[in-house]
Write a structure and sequence with these properties.
With 385 residues, the chain is α/β, with parallel strands linked by helices. The chain has 13 helices and 18 strands. The strands form three sheets. The protein has a nine-stranded mixed beta sheet with strand order 8-5-4-3-2-1-16-17-18, with helices on one face. Strands 9-10-11-12-13-14-15 form a seven-stranded mixed beta sheet. β17 (346-350) and β18 (358-360) form a beta hairpin. The longest helix is centred in the N-terminal third of the chain and has 28 residues, at 9-36. It is globular.
Amino acid sequence: MARRRKIKKHTASKIIIAVVVILLIVAIALGIFYAVAPEEFNALKEKLFPSEPSSPGTQPTLEGTLEMTVIDIGQGDCIFLQFPDGQTMIMDAGSEFGSTNEYDQLTAHLTLRGIDSLDYVFITHSDYDHIRYMQDIFEDYEVKNIYMPRVADDMSATWTKTVAAIEEETWTNESGETVDSEIYYTVGDFVIQGEDWTMNCHSYLEDDYPSVKESSSAEVKNAVSPVCFLEYADRTIVLTGDSNERNEEYLLERGVLDKDADVLKVGHHGSRTSTIQEFLNAVDCEYAIVSYGEDNDYGHPTPELMSRLEDYTDVRPDNDYNGYKYIYETPKDGNVSVYVDGNGTLRIDCELTDDKDFTLNWGEVAASAADWLLPSRRYEVGLAA
């Protein structure tokens, strides 16, 4: 029988040393390659070791930019706001009427920004098509501040549950303590603000605020929707909820609506009795967004309202576009996103259409953000980078 040869210890040591030397040579060569040609090195690295796709929950936030997205949530309203200082707000929480996405359309928008808590929830009024998913929001997200109308708790079964959820809402502060959310009634004139941005809101003053209960007319229920002017970098967005001619005329008489604004979220889904001519003249916008459900039973937006927008001309000559340059409609354009950077550059992106995407005075300062902001559908539809 042949004897099995043994490997001597010093031979094994030589093999180990040789392997170490080879690895050192490779490491030095790679270091030189990276120093001389870093782009080629990274390209080779990506080819050999592809990185995992980034999580959709890590969508970057552009510091110093205001975002407002009117979410296509069907016959209702749901607006996401991310302020330039990073604070966030949901204004109303839509309904499922006329939408195939329902609540997922909202949560997907928040998930893509890595948002698990909200600084503000703003409820314009108590109608179902503005509060349908409020209970879900309070269950799924911590909310620090809640703005709500002062109406009877028993307006509807959905409103009663919403009020109960509001009263139970808490959030965890920086010290790790669980504290109650702050609750504010949207009565009179009030201000919400952060670093360099301000939202001035106007509703009925205390003595004039109507008593709103289940038996109240739809006109009264809608009329408690505040009109808010969101201002940043010399740009102004007008937010209206379901404001109608009743409170519009009241606020016009008080003289709080005169503002050379830029973007109007049209009141009450384009109702005939909302966004009256005098209101249009006062806010003097150039871009309008109408949120409604396709083929809804209410006839929204009405021909009368659309004619007012299409025929509008400035009553006060200025350097802005004379009239409305674009009228956006959620069933046709999908989610409509408005961006304002720190220089006052305004951009509007549509989820479903390209011909209304535009940039107004988009300068070099925003060039670094172009890959993220253009178009918004990159993260709202395909979740792709």
